[in-house]
Design goal:
Radius of gyration: 41 Å
Strand content: 35-45%
Shape: elongated
Oligomer: single chain
Distance between the termini: 65 Å
Largest sheet: 11 strands, antiparallel
Number of domains: 3
Helix content: 10-25%
Structural class: alpha+beta
Number of strands: 21
Number of helices: 4
Length: about 350
């Protein structure tokens, strides 16, 4: 009898235990998350393209006459010019010598002929004022002076063909080797120059961009060898015609390369800024959920994940503008959002 009573009491105790679970068993697990307090910033809508950076000015100077080769010294270094040297407009780089050619020009003789002609002109003008010569005789002396001046100028131009000078400020990019005092023939390549403090690139843009890309829009220029530098550019020209073969239209971008960081021939990336929003709420694109025509994110309020529907505006590769649904100083969940639901309990780690 006592055993039955003991078993009955034990059964009641077991049932009572099953009907009253531990007090904390219904507490929801908090999901660890990281948040970002939203601040206003700027975002640009970009159209990306690529192209080859080209020097604004480029020239290959050849020998206009035959002569003996003399490479000049660079005034900045005191040594003969070499590849990569900067030159100023008008600087003498190479001089060709040919005494027979120079003698044939007879520069000094032409200077003397002009001097004599001018003296005769002065004499004839004085005589004409006194009635000593006719007007026709005086005018003939003017003709002789004019011809003498032309002869002298042509002689100087002929001599200048023996000198190779920089036609603009630039950098030596090619300099074929010739033995000093060796004879080079007319037409031989002597030196190549480029000016690339301002550069340009020709681009092909998709047909879909024609309504967005306009002249004078800013362009960001980057190259993989310059990961920390973005150069400034600008749309300078646009073709109104679409290629029927490629469905693209042509444009030209001018690049500001004051530091000479870009080199002619580099293949660069160009991001054309076709629109810009300032004082906007900017969020990472990766935190946005998309369901059909709905976009939403999660923010934290009192350790609870709150779902916010949003409307978006401009986008770039990594970020997007939020035009409705979020406010400055909201705590946006940027990590740990993948498994959240509306009103999930969260624990902020940062």
């Amino acid at each position: 009898m006592k055993n039955r009573l003991f078993l009955f009491m034990a059964l009641l105790a077991l049932l009572a235990a099953c009907g009253n679970p531990p007090q904390g068993s219904q507490t929801e697990i908090e999901t660890p998350v990281s948040v970002q307090e939203l601040k206003k910033g700027s975002i640009s809508r970009l159209i990306n393209t690529t192209g080859t950076a080209t020097a604004t000015y480029s020239v290959e100077l050849n020998a206009e006459m035959s002569g003996f080769y003399n490479l000049q010294n660079n005034p900045s270094t005191g040594r003969p010019y070499k590849l990569g040297d900067a030159v100023k407009k008008g600087q003498l780089i190479i001089h060709l010598e040919d005494q027979e050619y120079e003698n044939g020009i007879a520069l000094e003789s032409k200077k003397l002929s002009l001097e004599i002609a001018e003296q005769e002109q002065n004499k004839q003008e004085a005589l004409y004022e006194k009635g000593g010569v006719t007007l026709s005789e005086m005018r003939n002396t003017e003709v002789r002076v004019t011809n003498a001046r032309y002869d002298l100028e042509n002689a100087r131009l002929s001599l200048e063909k023996m000198s190779v000078r920089a036609p603009f400020d630039g950098v030596i990019v090619s300099l074929p080797h010739y033995t000093p005092q060796s004879r080079v023939t007319q037409g031989s390549e002597l030196v190549g120059l480029m000016a690339y403090s301002r550069m340009y690139m020709e681009v092909n843009l998709p047909e879909s961009a024609i309504e967005y890309v306009k002249p004078n829009q800013p362009v960001h220029i980057t190259h993989y060898t310059l990961p920390d530098d973005t150069l400034r550019g600008q749309i300078s020209e646009l073709s109104p015609a679409i290629s029927t073969e490629t469905r693209t239209f042509q444009g030209k971008v001018l690049i500001n390369n004051d530091g000479l960081k870009l080199r002619p021939g580099m293949f660069v990336k160009a991001d054309i800024v076709v629109d810009r929003a300032d004082s906007a709420i900017i969020i990472p694109k990766e935190v946005v959920f998309s369901r059909r025509n709905r976009k939403y994110v999660y923010i934290v309020e009192r350790n609870t994940a709150i779902l916010r529907d949003i409307q978006t505006g401009l986008e770039d590769e990594d970020f997007m503008e939020v035009t409705e649904g979020l406010n400055e100083n909201d705590n946006l969940i940027i990590r740990g959002y993948e498994t959240l639901r509306e009103n999930s309990r969260v624990k902020v780690l940062n």
